Amino acid sequence: MENENQNKGEMYSMVDAVVYRINDLCEKNDMSIYELSKLSGVSQSTLNEIMQGRSKRPRLDTLVNIAFAFGIRPRDFLDHPVFDQIEGVHDREPQERLKKHRKKQENQEDQE
Q1: How far apart are CA 1 and CA 83, in angstroms?
Q2: Based on the number of CB atoms within 10 Å of its own CB, is 56 exposed (0-12), middle (13-18) or buried (19 or more)?
Q3: Cα–Cα distance between 72 and 79 in angstroms, integer?
Q4: From the UniProt record, which GO molecular function terms apply (predicted)?
Q5: What is the tens place of the pLDDT at every residue in 20-68?
Q6: What CA–CA distance (Å, rounded) separates 38 from 106?
Q7: Facing residues of 86 across strands?
Q8: Do 11 and 85 contact (CB within 8 A), yes or no?
Q9: Is 78 exposed, middle or buried (0-12, 13-18, 19+ CB in 10 A)?
Q10: Domains in the chain, start-ordered, CATH in brackets?
Q11: Which residue, 16, 23, 30, is CA-closest to 66?
C-alpha cells in the first residue's frame, strides 16, 4: 500500500501513522477491521475510534494486541518508515533532551 503523503515526505500525527500502519497490515493480510477486532480482542468500537482519528492516543496494550493479531511483535508494528514521519519527532531530539536533563542534574548537584 503506497501512501502519497509518505512519498512526498509530509508529516503525520502519531494517530495518523498508527492508522496508516493498521490499514497497511490489513491490506497485506487481507483482513477487515472486524476480523482484526476478533483476532486482537480489541473491541470494534475502539478500533473504529482509532481508525477514524477520534482516539488521539491509542493505549500501548491496544497496539500490542493489534500487532499480535497480525502475527508480529509490537516492535515490528512500529518498525515502519511512516513512524519516522511523525510531527515533532526528530532524530536528535531524544539526545538533546537527555543532554539537557544531565546538565540540569549536574547543576543541581553543584548547588548542593
Answers
A1: 15
A2: exposed
A3: 11
A4: DNA binding
A5: 999 999 999 999 999 999 999 999 999 999 999 999 899 999 999 999 9
A6: 51
A7: 12
A8: yes
A9: middle
A10: 4-111 (1.10.260.40)
A11: 23
Does residue 82 contact residue 3 with C-beta atoms inside 8 Å? yes
- Quote the pTM value: 0.72
User: Measured between alpha carbons, how far is 67 from 74 in angstroms, rounded to an integer?
Assistant: 5
What stretch of H or E contains 44?
helix 44-51
Cell 501512501 belongs to residue: 3
Provide the 8-state DSSP code for 66.
H
Cell of 95: 539526545
Give the contacts of 58 (CB within 8 A, at least 6 positions apart).
15, 18, 50
Dig out the grid coordinates for 33 from the structure.
477491521
Cell matching residue 106: 549536574
